[in-house]
Write a structure and sequence with these properties.
Layout (H helix, E strand, L loop, with lengths): L9 E7 L3 H5 L3 H8 L3 E5 L5 H4 L10 E5 L9 E5 L5 E3 L13 E5 L4 E6 L7 H23 L4 E6 L23 H12 L2 E3 L13 E2 L5 H4 L2 E2 L2 E6 L6 E6 L11 E5 L4
Parallel strand pairs: 1-2, 7-8
Antiparallel strand pairs: 1-14, 2-4, 3-4, 5-6, 6-7, 8-12, 9-12, 10-11, 13-14
Helix pairs in contact: 4-5
C-alpha cells in the first residue's frame, strides 16, 4: 500500500448510519467529503451496492467494499478506503454467522482492519444467544489473526456498553441486553487478549456516548450509551495518536467515532 512504509497519520472513522440510503438524504456524502477520513467503516447499511447505484461516485479517491446479508434491508457493512488493500474478507468462518453481512476484514500491509456490526440481543432470547455466539466466533477469528502475527484494528457497533461509565443509566439497565454481565464479560476477555479500548486511553470522563434512543429524544438530554468502539491489539497502540467521538454529527441514532494512527516499524 503506497505510503504506508512512511510514518503517515491515518484517520479511520467508524459510523453506524442506521441505513445508508436514509443517511445520504441527511448529508452523508457531504459529511464524508468534509471529514475526509482515509478509511471509513460503516455499519447497518441496510442495502446492497445496486440499491445505492452510482451515489458513491462523487466520493473521488475512495475504493468501496461491501458485505450484505441474505435478508434485504437488514444489517450490512461498508468500507470506503483511499488506499487499496491487499485483500478483503467477509466471513468469520462460521456459517451461522456469515449470512447477515456483519463483517469486513480489510488487510493492509501494516495491519488488518475488522469492520464489525455485532448483533443486537434485545429482541428475544434467541437473538441474545445469537449475539453471544457471534461474540465467541469473532474472538476465535481475531485469535487466529493474532496467531498469524497480524496487527489488528477492530471497530464498529459492539452493541454493548462495557462499563458503568459507558452509559447514562447503568443501574436501570443491568438486566437489559447491551449491559448484561455476560456481554460485558466478553469485552473483558477481549481486553484480556491484549486488545485496548483506544478511546479510554485518552479520556476517562463520563457522559461520552455514541448512541441515543430516538423515540425518547434521549440525545437532547444526553441519555446515551457508548456502543461504538475502536479496539486495537497491543502492538498497534504505540501508533495511536488520537481517539475521538463526534457527537455533533447527526443523521443517525449513532454518531461517528474515530482513530488516528501513525504506523511505524
Amino acid at each position: 500500500m503506497e505510503g504506508m512504509e512512511e510514518s503517515v497519520t491515518l484517520k479511520i472513522v467508524s459510523w453506524n448510519v442506521n441505513g445508508i440510503r436514509a443517511a445520504m438524504k441527511k448529508g452523508f456524502l457531504e459529511w464524508v467529503m468534509e471529514e475526509s477520513p482515509d478509511i471509513l467503516c460503516v455499519q447497518e447499511t441496510k442495502a446492497r451496492p445496486e440499491q445505492v447505484g452510482d451515489s458513491l461516485d462523487g466520493l473521488d479517491g475512495y475504493h468501496a467494499y461491501w458485505s450484505w446479508g441474505e435478508r434485504k434491508g437488514y444489517s450490512g457493512v461498508l468500507v470506503l478506503s483511499k488506499r487499496e488493500p491487499v485483500s478483503v474478507g467477509r466471513h468469520v468462518g462460521v456459517e451461522e454467522f456469515d449470512g447477515e453481512g456483519r463483517l469486513l476484514v480489510i488487510e493492509y500491509p501494516d495491519f488488518t482492519l475488522c469492520n464489525v456490526y455485532f448483533p443486537n440481543g434485545q429482541a428475544r432470547a434467541e437473538r441474545l444467544a445469537y449475539k453471544l455466539g457471534f461474540y465467541e466466533a469473532f474472538l476465535g477469528f481475531v485469535d487466529r489473526l493474532r496467531a498469524q502475527g497480524r496487527r489488528v484494528v477492530c471497530c464498529g457497533d459492539f452493541n454493548t456498553a462495557h462499563r458503568a461509565v459507558d452509559l447514562a443509566r447503568p443501574k436501570e439497565n443491568e438486566a437489559v441486553s447491551g449491559f448484561l454481565p455476560e456481554e460485558r464479560e466478553w469485552m473483558d476477555r477481549l481486553e484480556g487478549r491484549g486488545f485496548v479500548d483506544t478511546f479510554r486511553q485518552f479520556s476517562q470522563e463520563p457522559g461520552q456516548y455514541t448512541y441515543w434512543d430516538m423515540k425518547s429524544w434521549a440525545r437532547d438530554r444526553n441519555v446515551g450509551w457508548r456502543l461504538d468502539y475502536f479496539y486495537v491489539s497491543a502492538d498497534v497502540m504505540p501508533w495511536v495518536t488520537a481517539a475521538f467521538i463526534l457527537p455533533g454529527v447527526m443523521g443517525s441514532d449513532h454518531c461517528p467515532v474515530g482513530l488516528e494512527l501513525a504506523p511505524g516499524p
